[in-house]
Amino acid sequence: MKDVYLFSGFLGSGKTSMLTDVIRQLKEKGLKPAVIMNEFGQLNFDSQSVEEDIPLKEMLEGCICCSGSEKTEAQIQTLLANEQFDVLLIETTGAAHPVEALDAVYSPLFAEQLNIKGIVTVADSKLWLDRDKLSPQVKSLFLEQIRHAHLLLANKIDLLTESEQAKVVFEIQNVNSNAFILQTTNGRVPLHLLEKLHSTVTNNKNDIHSAKIGVHLHLTSRLVEFQKSFTQDQFEEWIRTLPSTVYRMKGYVPIEGMKNPMLFQYAYGLVQWLPEYIRMQPKIVMIGENLDQIQIFGQDSQ
Ligand SMILES: Nc1nc2c(ncn2[C@@H]2O[C@H](COP(=O)(O)OP(=O)(O)OP(=O)(O)O)[C@@H](O)[C@H]2O)c(=O)[nH]1
């Protein structure tokens, strides 16, 4: 049997960071992972963080739950038929309900081959403190992702004071008293904590159907292409003008004086820039609500 872990957590909470670190630990232990990644948006940005020797299936513009559990089923079948691996890691989009995503991996086709260990949810601790600023649907999804986890990571703890850290753990534990909570930075979770999970989910299949929230979020994604370069300051100034309903941005931005577009990440007001050694297309994907009304920096209004 191959162990299967589902990585859940809202947009930008640290799932890909956790995934790359878990892959590293599995490899160190001599285990071979396979990965299924689901991106909400048109850029396969995160898959670039998975090394080439790892079997990878991606689903773009997907939400593992709504765009079809059949697709996930097909991806798992292809992996099982064509690849040698020991552990399957599935990163859901930040817009997926974890239990619906879990439902998608249950199939009589491979029930004998997969040992579904559980849902690991990465919660952005800073977002937790600001959760009342989220729209009701998004807040509800954020809570559901926490509520249904078998293991919880209170991530980005480096951005909080000690008293805030204690408050987050206490409050999150109140939402889900069954899961073990680990305070993390960059989603670093020791492998033995994942391995300790007891495949509890297989016993609760009936709960899974009743737990569906049935609310569909009005999240959209928008692909933005840049024709000219900016300074980092100009770009960040534009970001500060964006409404709080822009939850996530990632991609490559052309910056004056830099040979290649820079790797750019944004989650809840926090910006991260990294130089990129390969010439990537100057494009970012934005994820949020009411994105069509946003004026893109450097582009004339239409
Ligand atoms: N300060 C801080 N930043 C973090 C931490 N973990 C992740 N980040 C940053 O947060 C951003 C999003 O991290 P990802 O790992 O890509 O998050 P994700 O959940 O995979 O994002 P989506 O796939 O868009 O849902 C990146 O810029 C990370 O470098 C952390 O513990 N502390």
From TrEMBL:
Signal peptide: none annotated. Residues 221-295 form the CobW C-terminal domain. It catalyses: GTP + H2O = GDP + phosphate + H(+). GO terms for molecular function: hydrolase activity; nucleotide binding. Keywords: Chaperone, Hydrolase, Nucleotide-binding. Residues 4-181 form the CobW/HypB/UreG nucleotide-binding domain. The keyword Hydrolase applies. GO terms for cellular component: cytoplasm. The keyword Transmembrane does not apply. Belongs to the SIMIBI class G3E GTPase family. ZNG1 subfamily. PANTHER family: COBW DOMAIN-CONTAINING PROTEIN (PTHR13748:SF62), COBW-RELATED (PTHR13748). This is Cobalamin biosynthesis protein. The lineage of its organism: Bacteria, Bacillati, Bacillota, Bacilli, Bacillales.
